[in-house]
């Protein structure tokens, strides 16, 4: 007989725990998002799967470091109960809720100096998938955080899905341009100076404009330098997330990012 996981006790099975926690939590959709969130210290009050044996086999293969934590957390529920908790079932049939970190702690981390890695600023981004991809990049490069200006919620479920659970590996906050953390601001724009002639300091703010209209006048006014990525004349611009990738890579080539083991 397969182990069904933690006993939820009377009247407090996983769906009840799920609904009790949903307001203060974000959805971790799928095994990989849960794995990442646990690795980076997320508080996970409830995790369910309709295939506990399959999820633990994945853990054995891909995440032995969090296997025991997963075994303690994952409760098996019916396929129907799992499907009722998520908008679209994930191929790994795993879903969990993670407590959203406090804004006060995030703001403190962003303001802390000296800073050992840049903060990425997305100036009025529009595309939720791009924002998620940027958070994943920031986590991979060990950036201090990702700040968005404008109306997009960087903790929107679609952004969290795109970030693969890596919101918990960096700081993610929304701020006004006037409230950006201290540090020299390098704003990426095709009209700027060639990035290849520049060293990006560890305490930099690296700012990127929106997909549709580029950098706002407020952001340009706060910028210390406008910086361009190499691009042939007849190409108008790169995608936002790929621009962030190239810029973080350029910073890392100066020696600041985590070493490849
Ligand atoms: C899709 S582009 C914005 C295009 C927009 N139509 C415009 O008017 O700028 C999104 C952002 O990526 C960055 N970006 C794209 N291509 C770039 C390049 N060649 N050099 C520097 N930044 C670039 C900029 O920050 C830009 O605001």
From TrEMBL:
A Pfam family it matches: SpoU_methylase
Single Gene Ontology BP annotation: methylation
A GO molecular-function descriptor: RNA binding
Residues forming coiled coils: none
Residues annotated as domain tRNA/rRNA methyltransferase SpoU type: 119-249
InterPro entries from the UniProt entry: Alpha/beta_knot_MTases, rRNA_Methyltransferase, SpoU_MeTrfase, tRNA_m1G_MTases_N
Domain of life: Bacteria
Alphabetized UniProt keyword annotations: Methyltransferase, Transferase
PANTHER family (alphabetical): RRNA METHYLTRANSFERASE 3, RRNA METHYLTRANSFERASE 3, MITOCHONDRIAL
Record protein name field: rRNA methylase
Organism in which the protein naturally occurs: Streptomyces coelicolor (strain ATCC BAA-471 / A3(2) / M145)
């Amino acid at each position: 007989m397969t182990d069904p996981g933690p006993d939820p006790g009377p009247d407090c099975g996983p769906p009840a725990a799920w609904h009790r926690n949903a307001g203060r939590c974000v959805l971790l959709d799928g095994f990989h998002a849960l794995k990442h969130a646990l690795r980076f210290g997320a508080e996970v009050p409830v995790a369910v799967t309709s295939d506990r044996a399959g999820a633990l086999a994945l853990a054995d293969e891909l995440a032995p470091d969090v296997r025991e934590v997963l075994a303690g957390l994952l409760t098996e529920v019916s396929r129907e109960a799992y499907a009722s908790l998520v908008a679209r079932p994930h191929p790994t049939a795993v879903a969990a809720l993670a407590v959203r970190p406090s804004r006060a702690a995030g703001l403190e981390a962003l303001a802390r100096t000296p800073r050992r890695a840049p903060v990425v600023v997305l100036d009025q981004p529009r595309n939720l998938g791009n924002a998620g991809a940027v958070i994943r990049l920031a986590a991979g490069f060990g950036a201090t955080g990702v700040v968005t200006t404008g109306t997009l919620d960087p903790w929107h479920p679609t952004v969290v899905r795109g970030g693969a659970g890596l919101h918990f590996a960096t700081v993610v906050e929304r701020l006004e341009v006037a409230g950006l953390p201290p540090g020299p601001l390098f704003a990426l724009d095709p009209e700027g100076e060639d990035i290849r002639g520049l060293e990006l300091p560890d305490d930099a703010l690296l700012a990127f404009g929106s997909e549709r209209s580029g950098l706002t006048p407020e952001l340009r006014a706060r910028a210390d330098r406008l910086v361009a990525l190499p691009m042939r004349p007849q190409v108008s611009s790169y995608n936002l997330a790929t621009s962030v990738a190239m810029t973080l890579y350029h910073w890392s080539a100066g020696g600041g990012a985590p070493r490849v083991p």
